[in-house]
Known about the structure:
By secondary structure, the chain is mostly helical. It contains two helices and no strands. The chain has helices spanning 43-71, 80-133. The protein is flat and about 90 Å long. The relative contact order is 0.11.
Amino acid sequence: MAVSDQPPVYTPGFNPGSICKAPPTGGTYGTPVAEGAGFKYDEATLHELVAEWRDLANEYIDDLDAAGKVARAMPPGKEYASGDNAKVTRLSGAALEETLRQRISYCENMAKKYVTALGKYATAEDHATSVINQQPKGIA
């Protein structure tokens, strides 16, 4: 077998000649639900996602407190090197604070989206219940 002089080239997608015979698939989260009303998650999964996004936001809030200490770092001495080092440390802390604020905002927005989805889910459930309740009782 001849060895190519060229480096191997990655070609994305499924290669039926590879060792792996199964094509890649996307992941899933929660129990699959039937299509309808635009929901991909069941109600319990939506509640779990809201809690997870809120928990993550709270972790970032805790980290923000620690980042504030870095952003307010004082030099250990009065010589030039200490002051310059503290200045760089404070700039790094400020960048970390800004990043954490953005992540907190993102997590809170994601939680709000799932809360909104829960509201739509409840509305769809209420509508379906009222439609069912309007049906004649008993066997026709």
